[in-house]
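Please go through the sequence and fold tokens given here and tell me how the chain folds. Record follows.
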Amino acid sequence: MEISIYKKEKKDDFKRVIELTRQERYKEAMTLFEEGEGTFHTHEALSCYALSIANHDFYLDAATKLCLVALRRDPKNPAIYLNLGKIFNLSNKKRTALRAFKKGMKKDIMERLHPEFIEAIASMGIRRTPVIPFLSRNNFLNRMLGRLISSLGRDVKPNFTKEKGGARISDLAHLKLF
């Protein structure tokens, strides 16, 4: 009887670890992972461990490999794509991170993690298209018109609120992602 209670406590620990990782409390998540004696009950927990390694210890290569292993074993889980994208973003691989976020959003049928994906993409600092798209970004007209428009406060900012129905894919239309 004690063995089954012990196993249930371990599974509850991993659920708690996933929540701690989502709350970006990586040090606490790492201690719970280490107490788990190296066993992972879900592939999502493995990807959370990888994200904790990347954020807490900065072992980015090892974290990437672990998260890719979790992704190979469970390719339909959008949370793994979210964690992988965050690891790539920490590694300054923004294009790869953006691809991971896009794939994860496509896999997220229930739209459970859409606000987190949108927030992660917005935090990457992706530039908007130039005011005059056929001229280069460094062109004098693009720079001056961009400064003028932003000083007038006419920037269209997406609605990234966490309220019900606040975050939508259409909010990212000006970023030219889709």
